[in-house]
Amino acid sequence: MIMAQKPLIFVTNDDGITAPGIRALIDTMNRLGDVVVVAPDRVHSGKGHAVTIHHPLYLDPIKIDNGPQKEFKTNGMPVDCVKLGLAHAVERKPDLVVSGINHGVNNSINVLYSGTMGAAVEASIEGIPSIGFSLDNYDWEADLNPAKHYVLKIARQVLKHGLPQGVSLNVNIPYLPFDKIKGIKIARQAMDKWHETYDKRTNPFGRDYYWLNGNFTYEDKGKDTDVYALKNDYVSVVPVQFDLTAHSVLKDLKHLENQ
Amino acid sequence: MIMAQKPLIFVTNDDGITAPGIRALIDTMNRLGDVVVVAPDRVHSGKGHAVTIHHPLYLDPIKIDNGPQKEFKTNGMPVDCVKLGLAHAVERKPDLVVSGINHGVNNSINVLYSGTMGAAVEASIEGIPSIGFSLDNYDWEADLNPAKHYVLKIARQVLKHGLPQGVSLNVNIPYLPFDKIKGIKIARQAMDKWHETYDKRTNPFGRDYYWLNGNFTYEDKGKDTDVYALKNDYVSVVPVQFDLTAHSVLKDLKHLENQ
Asked: Do the Cβ atoms of B127 and B165 come closer than 8 Å?
C-alpha cells in the first residue's frame, strides 16, 4: 500500500516563536501534516505587510519542544518569515500557510496593521492557501483549547477544499468556553476605525514624546461583519484579498484622464 | 470681499524628510494651499501599513528650506506620521493628504509593501482625500520636474472634486521628459508579484545571513493595469480601497459555517 504524502504546513506568527499562541497552533497543525515553523525571534505587533529591505536576515534552526515539527527563528518580521521561509526553510511549496494564534483580535480595520494577516496575505500572493488566526484575548495565560478546536476544523477544511485564488482567511475567535461559542460565520470586514489619541509625556531629558493609545470606535452597524459575529459569540471568517483596486469607482475617476 | 480659507494640505513620505521627492512635493503643494509636513527622520522603505506600538515617538519642528510650510520630523514610520501628525501637528482636519514623491515605483503588488501608500491609505481611513505619488526612478538626482507637473494637476483635481469615500489614489509616474509622457490613465492594480530570491552570505563571524534580492515578474497581461499604463508612457492612477474583503467569494465559503 502506498501512503499519500502528508500535507506540508508552514506556520508563522507576529508574537514571536515562543508565544503560547504559536505553540498551540504548531501543536494543532502536527495533527494534520508535516510542519515547518519560521517565526520571529521577538514580538512584532502592528507590522502589517512590512518587509525588510535594508538589513540582512538570519534564519536559525531552533528546538523549543519535543514536537515533530522543524523550526527556525529569524530577526525578520512576519512577511519576511514567509518570504525567507518559502525560499530557504522548505523543500517544496507548502499546502497551507497558517499564522497565529495571535494574542488579540485582528478584525475590522486591524487586518491592515496585523502582521499575523500580513504573513497570511503574503502566502496568498504566492498562491498558497493561507489562514490567519487571532484570539480575542491579549493574555499569554489565556486558555487556548476552545480556539484550537476551531483552528483544527477550519484548517482541515481548507486543506481539503482549498481557497479561491488570491484569497486568505482572517479568522477571529471569541474568548469563550467551548460550549459558549455558537459556531462559524463568514463575514465582511467591518468598516470601523481607531480614534487615535497619543499620550504626550516628557522624557527624563525634557524632550516631549508621544505614545499611541487609541480607542476603537464601532461605526459599522452591519450585521454581516466580523465585529458583529464576534460580539455574538461566533468565530468570524473574512476572506481577504490583496487586490486593493476599488474596481467600483474606476469609471467615476475617468475625468482625471482628461486633464 | 471675504477670502475663502486656503486648503490645508498634509505632506508625508517614506524616504525621509530630506529626500528630493518630498521636497518637490512640498514645493508643489505650496502652490495649492497651506502645507504641514510630518515625515520620517530616516528612510522607511517597505514598511507598508506598519504602525509603532511598542516605543514612543518624537515629533520635532524642523526648518529645512525657506518655504512657507510648517514641518516636523519624527522617528515614526509613514503610517505613524499620519496618525501622530493628524493628532498633534495640525489644528484642523486637512483637506488633502499627499505622500511621496517616492523614489521608485509602487505599482502592482508593491502597493502592499509601500509606506508611501500606507500613509495615503491611513488618511483615507480618516476620511481625508489622499494620494500617494511615486516616480519610476530610484535615483535621488532624478529630474522631478515632469513629475511635479502631474502631481499639481492631480492634486488640484482631487482638491476640487474630492474622492469617493474610502478610496485613495496610487499614482505612478514614468521617468520621462515632459513631452514624452502621454497623459493619465485610470487603471487597476496589476496582479504581478515578486519572485523572491535571497543572497545567502556568511558574516565575519561565520554565521549565515540572507539579503532580499527579488525579481519582479510580469504575469498579468491585461491592458487595463497600472503596469501596462506605465510601460506605455502614461501616468497610472489606481483607486485603492482599505476594505480587503473579497466580497465576491463570501457565498462560496458558506460551507465553512456548517462545520
From this structure: yes
CATH classification of the domain holding B101: 3.40.1210.10
Start-to-end CA distance of chain A, whole Å, equals 69
B152 touches chain A (CB under 8 A): no
Q: At residue A156, what are phi and psi to the nearest 5 degrees? A: -60, -45
Q: Is A244 on the interface with B (CB under 8 A)?
A: yes
Smallest CA-to-CA distance from B210 within A97, A128, A86, A15 is with: A86
Bridge-based pairing of strands A8-12 and A34-40 is parallel
Total number of domains in chain B? 1
CB-based contact, B49 to chain A, within 8 Å: yes
C-beta atoms of A246 and B112 within 8 A: no
Does the residue B62 lie in any domain?
Answer: yes
Chain A contact for B48 (CB, 8 A cutoff): yes
CB-based contact, B63 to chain A, within 8 Å: no
Separation CA A225–CA B126 (nearest Å): 20
Q: Has residue A142 been placed in a domain?
A: yes
Nearest to B244 among A58, A111, A200 (CB): A111
Q: At residue A122, what is the residue type?
A: E
**Residues of B with Cβ-Cβ distance to A191 under 8 angstroms:** 166, 243
pLDDT digits 0-9 by tens, B166-193: 999 999 999 999 999 999 999 999 999 8
ipTM of the complex: 0.93
Does residue A259 carry a pLDDT above 90? no
For A157, the closest of B126, B211, B259 (CB atoms) is B259
Straight-line distance from the first to the last Cα atom of chain B, in angstroms, rounded to the nearest whole number: 69
What's CA B1's distance to the chain center, in Å? 38
Work out the average pLDDT over B143-156.
Answer: 98
Neighbours of B212 (CB within 10 A): 22
How many angstroms separate the CA atoms of B85 and B74, rounded?
9
**H or E element, residue A237:** strand A234-241
Q: Which of A43, A237, A241 sits opposite B256 (nearest CB)?
A: A237
A positions 76-115 inside 8 Å of B (CB):
77, 79-80, 83-84, 86-88, 109, 111-113
Q: Is residue A236 part of a domain?
A: yes
Strand B234-241 to strand B183-186: parallel, antiparallel, or no bridges (unpaired)? parallel
- How far does CA A30 lie from the centroid of its chain? 19
Q: Does A195 have pLDDT greater than 90?
A: no
pLDDT category at B2 given cuts 50, 70, 90 is low
Q: What is the domain range of residue A131?
A: 8-189+223-258
Measuring CA to CA, which residue among B167, B69, B67 is closest to residue B125? B167
The answer to the question of residue B58 being in a domain is yes
Q: Chain B residue with minimal CA distance to A206?
A: B58
